[in-house]
Amino acid sequence: MSRIGFYAKILAMEKIDENLLERIISYQKNEITEYYIYKKLSEKTPDPHNKKVLDDISREEYKHYEFLKDISKRDIAPSRFKIFFYTVLSSIFGITFTLKLMETGEGIAQGNYTKISDAIPYLENIVNEEEKHESEILSLLDEENLRYVSSMILGLSDALVELTGTLAGLTFALRNTSLVALSGLITGIAAALSMAASEYLSTKAEEGEKNPVKASIFTGITYIIAVLFLVFPYFLFKNYTVSFLFTLLLAILLVIVFNFYISVAKELDFKKRFLEMIFIILIVSLITFGIGILIKVLIGVQV
Is this structure's pTM higher than 0.70? Predict the structure, then answer.
């Protein structure tokens, strides 16, 4: 008999009050939910290595569930919403990001387990051992897309800084949303192609693990997505000031989403990266805003 099974049978004989039982059932629901999430992610991934990692984690989650079930004496259904949410999230942001985000919740759950460890002996030790095992397995997880994060950072950061600055200058030089939108779109797409080509040559020269073609695609696509977001307000509004304010808001939103993704997937400091990028964008926008006004005054262009 396993140690977990042995402890569970001992604990099952003890009387548990209703409040404690409710918490046990809540933890039990969480474990069975994550079991199904890991199982579904395992079925989705084509990579044999990742499939094995996810299978191992799902079995650990089911052991947790079985241990709690021996205490509660109940079968608990999983959360269908969480299963759906994390499955969709993995399709958008990748498996590694999804799992590390889930592990953040696991850390909170582990803290909750500790709170009831006095009432249920051995629970904290058992869960800590299993959580440590899960962390070790997750550290082995390999996802190809994460190798190209630097290319994505290059595409997005360059687009946000360069295009936001360009739009600021064009906005107050031309003061015509249609012209700014057209100019921004042409400039952005041309810059995206240029950045993709530069990333291809740079990656090829490095002769590292990254594929130069894939690196250039990640850079180019990320750049173009940022361009479409930033130019969109100029197609939506007629007032150039309103358009530029919405462009700034979208730029901030992109910075939040992207830095959140990077901070979770690569375990980096979100606040530091976010503030740094926002500061650069605002400074560049302010400078190009001034240049746009200066050029308009000096050249005397009227649109």
Answer: no
